[in-house]
Amino acid sequence: MSFATDTDTLLHAAPEPSDSAWDKAVEQIIHAGRRMDQRGWVPATAGNLSVRLPDGRIAVTRSGGHKGFLTRQGVIEVGLDGASMRPEDRPSAETLLHCQIYARFPDAGAVLHGHSVASTVLSMTTAGSKLYLADYEVLKVFEGQTTHETRLAVPVFPNDQDIARLSRSVALSLDDMKAGYIIRGHGVYVWGPNMDTALARLEGLEFLLACELEQAKFRATVQGSGS
Q1: How buried is residue 48: exposed, middle or buried, by Cβ count under 10 Å (0-12/13-18/19+)?
Q2: For 61-76, what is each residue's pLDDT tens digit?
């Protein structure tokens, strides 16, 4: 099987290499994409990644590219409304969810969206509107958490192809998402003041969701053996 990469459909060049701030943002996105791909969190062409530059520009992955094979041309610029700054560039429809985070949190510098097995399976097998993570040491990776003796709720929203409508649902609880959020059967959204922090939070959340998935399988095995 082969995937179309961002270079396959490229028609126009990215901003000039002399733009050092842009170059740095692109490098961060490429690095994060490879890291997420290595961990199986962005299968096929899934997921999207973005960085907000110090001058307010937003760099985000182009629609349809494989995140493990990103190049400079796989990153485009959008405005805070999610629209591409150049008509020939097509951002993912979910870019609006990135921009929503940047608009709400002035200190947000990077947003990551992945499609892991754990987040997909757990959100589809959980009927409630939240997943709860409690008593894990890794909870301290999230902002404001100083002890494992706590419980964080991770909101789960119904999947919706109408991204504007989905963003309105997310907006209702966006201020109370210490560990990001999940779209059911789809994946997670995590952010931070910079790419390093966003990546750390994403890895923390994915680790915890994987633990929850393993616990669910263990409980099912124990219950099955006792019946």
Answers
A1: buried
A2: 999 999 999 999 999 9
Rounded to two decimals, the pTM is 0.90
Pick from 67, 57, 75: nearest CA to 10: 75
Three-state SS for the chain is CCCCCCCCCCCCCCCCCCCHHHHHHHHHHHHHHHHHHHCCCCCCCCCEEEEECCCCCEEEEECCCCHHHCCHHHEEEECCCCCECCCCCCECCCHHHHHHHHHHCCCCCEEEEECCHHHHHHHHHCCCCEEEEECCHHHHHCCCCCCCCCEEEEEEECCCCCHHHHHHHHHCCHHHCCCCEEECCCEEEEEECCHHHHHHHHHHHHHHHHHHHHHHHHHHHHHHHHC
pLDDT, one tens digit per residue, over 163-201 is 999 999 999 999 999 999 999 999 999 999 999 999 999
User: Are the C-beta atoms of 185 and 120 separated by less than 8 Å?
Assistant: yes
Nearest Cα neighbor of 181 from 196, 166, 194, 200 is 166
Q: Residues 207, 211, 216, CA angle at the centre, nearest 5°?
A: 150
